[in-house]
Design a protein that fits this description.
- This protein is α+β, with helices and mostly antiparallel strands.
- The chain has a single domain, classed as Arc Repressor Mutant, subunit A, CATH 1.10.10.10.
- It contains five helices and three strands; from the N terminus they run H-H-E-H-H-E-E-H.
- It has a three-stranded antiparallel sheet.
- The longest helix has 15 residues.
- The protein is elongated.
């Protein structure tokens, strides 16, 4: 698995920070492969809105799409989310983190 750089991480986080896209991701994470019609039923959005969000997620390689006749089935691409998690874990395990809870900035410190 390749490591994300700051620019790619920021771009993917921006994409998943949209509330509708995050709802789609959580839905696919909990239910697995889903037909677009079932996603529409769950989220109560228009087909055009769903299509837009699915294209954004697919272009970012966060989900994959399989066509089956006139139907489209979607699922998450787990490695994409693992890359995001690895990026965050690297920050969490950094030696430069300040673990001292008594170190806090307040208005008095800025004077």
């Amino acid at each position: 698995m390749k490591t994300l750089n700051d620019k790619r991480f920021a771009a993917k986080i921006k994409i998943i920070s949209d509330a509708t896209r995050l709802s789609i991701i959580r839905l696919l994470a909990s239910k697995g492969i889903m037909c677009a019609c079932k996603i529409l039923e769950e989220l109560h959005i228009t087909q055009g809105t769903l299509s837009h969000h699915m294209n954004v997620l697919a272009n970012a390689k966060l989900i994959s799409c399989r066509k089956d006749g006139k139907w489209r089935h979607y699922c998450l691409i787990p490695n994409s989310f693992c890359e995001l998690a690895t990026y965050i874990q690297e920050i969490c395990h950094s030696q430069s983190n300040c673990a001292d809870e008594s170190f806090k900035c307040n208005k008095e410190d800025s004077k």
